[in-house]
Design brief:
CATH class of the largest domain: Alpha Beta
CATH topology of the largest domain: Rossmann fold
Radius of gyration: 23 Å
Structural class: alpha/beta
Largest sheet: 8 strands, antiparallel, barrel
Number of strands: 17
Strand content: 25-35%
Shape: globular
Strand order of the largest sheet: 2-3-4-5-6-7-8-9
Number of domains: 2
Oligomer: single chain
């Protein structure tokens, strides 16, 4: 239970500055001896901003989860994932081992980490490069290898492309497989989170720049969660640049807007813009137009907010503010309404997302009501994708949002079938 909660909390953590410790640059790995032992990799990198350190749960979700790293006097070493987990230890005199204690809430255990050579690494074998996409903005690009048609993976909000380290290599060597960590996360650059730097089409432009830089010819883009907006941004503006789009539980309103179902966030953003126009408009034709638009759109927003209220009344309390709130907020504020896509699509949905995966402490009646609300919201998006003449839609009942982990074989099979059909054309 604690492990599951901790892994979910990892998505909320952004890089924090590492201090001192240049002599601990490298890869450290070992098995943490708790009641349920687990393998852990600690990666320490150095760039122009100093040190960056990450925890990687290689046997669970292999993302790079940013931590602080402190190398104190006398060889004392601390790796800390905010208030959630830490390793406190000491570096050996030869600099090749850290002996310490793992602490995560009430759980604790011995942690012995060894400095690992590339041949000893537990991580997925890949080549990593940084590609410049804008002035002072470079993105981490992972190359898992392969010699076939290009396949590019894009991660969800708060994740890096390393979240696919266990899944993406399944498509090698038949495909040449890449992953891109979006701006603001992992070792990619993090420009100021404002209304321009993280808007949907800017994130889409980043993907286009990487495709051009790598010289990829009509790749298939595979996006999880919020990456659906990047898929739709590229697919709607540059349909001839890609062979297809694969949405991994990514086909929500930020990827394809339904005028019938609406979306509280997108409609609230539009209402905010219209209210600004109303407040600055002079009496006359312009203000009349704005008022007419508001009166037409506000009833839909009211229904959506009432639906959100029902949802939030069922949720447990105690959620803290995300440390990456400014970047996440900028990305969400940069969403826009995509309404049509004319490119080959595979859209895989989890419906419903079993609430027991996320809130096991909730009573059964609340879990059932959450599942009902979730199912209705997702079903409306499923219908919207089914309207597209070029889309194949797959629904996986009671899957996790990370469908490529919870339903790995199903997702791999559907993707292989879709990719095979594309290649046979």
């Amino acid at each position: 239970m604690l492990r599951r909660r901790l892994l979910l909390l990892l998505l909320l953590i952004l890089p924090l500055n590492a201090m001192q410790g240049q002599d601990i640059v490298g890869q450290w790995q070992g098995t943490v001896q708790t009641a349920a032992p687990f393998r852990l990799v600690v990666k320490v990198l150095k760039d122009s901003n100093g040190l960056r350190a990450f925890f990687i749960w290689v046997d669970a979700r292999p993302d790079y989860n940013p931590v602080t790293a402190v190398n104190g006097p006398g060889g004392a070493v601390t790796f800390s994932l905010g208030p959630y987990a830490s390793i406190n230890g000491r570096l050996s005199t030869d600099g090749n081992q850290i002996d310490g204690t793992w602490t995560a809430g009430a759980e604790s255990g011995k942690a012995v980490l060894h400095r690992a050579s590339p041949d000893e690494s537990w991580l997925s074998k890949s080549t990593i490069r940084m590609i410049t996409v804008a002035p002072n903005v470079s993105l981490e690009v992972i190359d898992w290898g392969g010699t076939g048609p290009p396949l590019v993976f894009l991660s969800g909000l708060g994740n890096t492309a390393h979240v696919f380290d266990n899944f993406a290599p399944k498509f090698v060597p038949k495909y040449h497989v890449f992953g891109i960590t979006r701006r603001g996360y992992g070792v990619s650059s993090a420009p100021t989170p404002d209304s321009l730097n993280y808007r949907a089409d800017q994130l889409g432009d980043d993907i286009v720049k990487v495709i051009d830089s790598l010289g990829l010819k009509k790749p298939v883009l595979v996006g999880h969660s919020i990456a659906g907006e990047e898929l739709s941004s590229v697919g709607s503006r540059f349909p001839n640049m890609v062979s297809g789009l694969i949405y991994l539980d990514a086909g929500y309103a930020f990827a394809l807007y339904s005028a019938q179902a609406g979306d509280s966030r997108l409609d609230a953003l539009e209402a905010r813009r219209e209210l600004g126009e109303y407040l600055s408009a002079s009496p006359g034709a312009d203000r009349k137009r704005v008022i007419t638009d508001l009166l037409s759109n506000l009833p839909m927003l009211q229904k959506e907010l009432e639906r959100d209220l029902k949802h939030d009344e069922l949720m447990p309390g105690g959620f803290g503010k995300r440390p990456d709130v400014s970047i996440a907020q900028a990305i969400r504020d940069g969403e826009r309404k995509f309404t049509d896509l004319d490119v080959s699509i595979l859209a895989i949905f989890a419906n419903p997302h079993d609430p027991k995966n996320y809130f096991p402490e909730l009573p059964p009646d609340k879990i059932a009501k959450l599942a009902e609300l979730d199912q209705a919201t997702t079903a409306s998006q499923v219908k919207e994708f089914e309207k597209l003449k070029s889309a194949k839609v797959v629904v996986l009942p009671n899957a996790h949002h990370y469908v490529f982990s919870s339903n790995e074989q199903d997702v791999e099979r559907e993707m292989m079938d879709f990719l095979g059909a594309l290649n046979s054309r």
